[in-house]
Amino acid sequence: MVSTHSGGFLLHDFDDDNLPTNKEKNFAIFTLIFHFGRKFFYIGAVLDIDSTDKKLLLLLQQDGTLSLNDLAEAVNLTTTPCWKRLKKLEEGGVIDKRVALLDPEKLGLSFTAFVQIKTTNHSHEWYQEFVETVSLFPEVMEFYRMAGEYDYMVKVLVKDMKCFDEFYKKLVNSIDGLSNVTSTFAMEPLKYTTALPIR
Question: In whole angstroms, what is the distance from residue 66 CA to residue 83 CA?
């Protein structure tokens, strides 16, 4: 995914006395990724997110190219209060990023692997080095510390098995203390979404 602002306006570029022009209102707001976790719930309580805010978030998760006019009409508001709600959600951290979502298969990235890792070293220093090292691999799409049999799980996206093997060798040789590294491979993607289940 490639972060971009071209073709859209930044909500924080305007204040109450300098609202976006009609031309700027019609610029597409790029696909939004919403931060999920403690920050979302904490900010949600502080910002008092209501049903209209949730509808705006749902709409943007489905189509980030909707103009301000289209969003306002969909939630039965005029453009100014709609813009203020979007500004509030962005400044509060609920709207975390604007990105373009790319089709991995059209870019030749159709091989998905899940790598489960055990370690014999649980020191804070080792943990910091491990997280920094793994996070630098561009092939790593998601990275979790786990409860259960394995200590960590990594989702990897590459072109093919050869590319995965190259990644695997770099991973296991990049840091000491890995006692077990097990990989499983996705046969077919059945569901993928970036839309959070807002209720």
Answer: 13
